[in-house]
Specification:
single chain; 4 helices; flat; 134 residues; 2 domains; mainly alpha
């Protein structure tokens, strides 16, 4: 094939691509009202539950694959994150207007406090283990 034929074929393909893109735009515009209606009907709880479950899976796999040498620094970061969670949980408990918000805020504060306390214990144990080896 010579360059002129290639250029002509590329030009034809570009024109076809523009036509297909316009058809896709028209189809999307026709479907937009139904999509907006479906999105408005979905409850925010479903979105939040999905984010929570994905965060659980990602967190599990991230923590599970940590090497022992990185465990102590990561526990320090985890303790810092948990302290921020405690502050947010205390705010949720104090500012919560419903009983459910206050209960969940209290539970979050308690679980984050246990996480901080356990993190310091594990970090202390890991440091003692490294001192014995070194």
């Amino acid at each position: 094939m010579n360059p002129t034929d290639l250029a002509n074929q590329a030009s034809l393909m570009a024109e076809r691509a523009l036509i297909v893109a316009q058809q896709a735009r028209d189809l999307a515009a026709a479907q937009m009202p139904m999509v907006e209606q479906a999105a408005g009907a979905a409850e925010p709880f479903l979105y939040l539950l999905t984010i929570f479950l994905l965060a659980c899976f990602v967190g599990y796999y991230v923590v599970w694959n940590v090497t022992p040498a990185l465990h102590s620094p990561l526990m320090g970061v985890t303790n810092a994150i948990s302290s921020v969670i405690v502050v947010g949980a205390i705010l949720a408990t104090g500012l919560g207007e419903s009983l459910a918000a206050q209960v969940f805020g209290f539970l979050a504060a308690m679980l984050a406090a246990v996480n901080i306390f356990g993190g310091f214990i594990v970090t202390r144990r890991m440091l003692a283990m490294f001192k014995r080896k070194g």
